Amino acid sequence: MVKYRHSCYYRSKIGRQWLPSKLECEAMGAHLLVVTDSEENDFIYNVLFRDEPNFQIFIGGFRLMEESTYQWITGEPWTFANWNPLEPSLAVWDTGESEECVCITGQWNWTDIPCNQTRMFVCEF
Fold first, then answer.
1. Which of 59, 96, 99, 102 has the most CB atoms at less than 10 Å from its CB?
2. What is the pLDDT of residues 28-54, one digit of tens each?
3. SMART domains per the record (predicted)?
4. How far apart, in Å, are the Cα atoms of 87 and each of 70, 97, 102, 117?
């Protein structure tokens, strides 16, 4: 666990789908990571994942299927994002899966992916 500002961050050791990740964080009294500004985003890359340049993690951003806007699981305003230039794509895969969950990648950007994909995750306390 690592402290930054007024929060502590727990990095998962195994990957899960988005909903089980969310539930695991909640069982610990936390929530999936909510990134509110560029400094926090830089902290994620430079401190939590400096030793793992190809990481991919779920964060607490999601899109309701019938909407095109993203929101945070905490209800905080969506005032910051670090999307890859081609994201969010809101794509539907050949399998019929919609990209509704937000993932941070080791390329210093965010992408939307299907929620049933398996990724590591970060809980924020």
1. 102
2. 999 999 999 999 999 888 887 877 777
3. CLECT
4. 12, 16, 10, 17
Q: Could you write out the three-class secondary structure of the chain?
A: CEEECCEEEEECCCCECHHHHHHHHHHCCCEECCCCCHHHHHHHHHHHCCCCCCCEEEEEEEECCCCCCEEECCCCCCCCCCECCCCCCCCECCCCCEEEEEEEECCCEEEEEECCCCEEEEEEC
Q: State how far the Cα of 119 lies from the Cα of 111, in Å rounded to an integer.
A: 12
- Model confidence, pTM: 0.89
CB-CB contact of 124 with 36 (8 Å): no
**Res 21: pLDDT:** 98
